[in-house]
Design brief:
SH3 type barrels; mainly beta; 64 residues; four-stranded antiparallel barrel
């Protein structure tokens, strides 16, 4: 599942995000959602979140 819909993302969930510095390469970083930073219900590039290790990026995949 992709991370473009805010309703699909929950705090404490495992996700793969792309960090700002990795946008050119598309390298994904795994982590657990601490905060959801995007207020809108949809974003075409992914909902922006903060992970528990304080890194910030846009959700590309929701892990099961």
């Amino acid at each position: 599942m992709d991370g473009t819909n805010r309703s699909a993302i929950k705090i404490g969930q495992k996700v793969k995000i792309v960090l700002k510095k990795d946008q050119a390469t598309g390298k994904l970083t795994k982590g657990i959602v601490q905060n959801i930073l995007t207020n809108s219900s949809y974003h075409p590039h992914g909902i922006k979140v903060r992970l528990t290790d304080s890194r910030v990026g846009r959700v590309k995949e929701i892990c099961q």
